[in-house]
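User: Okay, second chain of the day. Same drill as before: sequence in, structure tokens out.
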Amino acid sequence: MKLTKRQTEVLVGTVLGDGFLQKTGPKNARLRLEHSDKQKDYLLWKGAQMSRLFQGKPSYLSRVHPKSGETYSYARWQSNASPELGVWQRYFYPDGKKTIPADIGKYLSPLALTVWYMDDGYFSEDKSSFIYLGKVSKLEAEILRDAIAKNFVISAKVYDKKNKGFALYFPVEETRKLHTLLKSFIHSSMSYKIS
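Assistant: Same drill. Structure tokens below.
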């Protein structure tokens, strides 16, 4: 199955964010989506973007957080395996570990950025924004910062959040530009993440 342009953009944003491409054979992979119960509508929207890959229904699970001891309820939805997803799995996980490819900018469209922001973005009370990157290297964080600057003329700073990994920080003026770009793509359940 060949992904459409829109499906590719949603996939790229998802993998930059919370999605995981799991290898299922020499050439195939499947996409795993996991979101909290509160984000169920967003999870269903994501699956609907690739409806030929996501059939059936999500599973609703719970787990105990190892540090806080609180029970966390979430939904998981796994796609069918396909060679097309296998190509993307090898692109993002060349050695089995997720990496940010040096040429990611060529795939970073407004929709891909929006999906990534819906997954990992945060709108602060002081009207600035963050995109949390997790355990990437500083170089990978800089690749993402530079791709956003080149593609959208939006400037971010790389912040080292120590135990939380790196994040991209958008000051107030850059946040306005970012949110203006994202607002026509953002899912209604995630509108609280933009001004």
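The chain has a mean pLDDT of 94.

User: Thanks, on to the next one.
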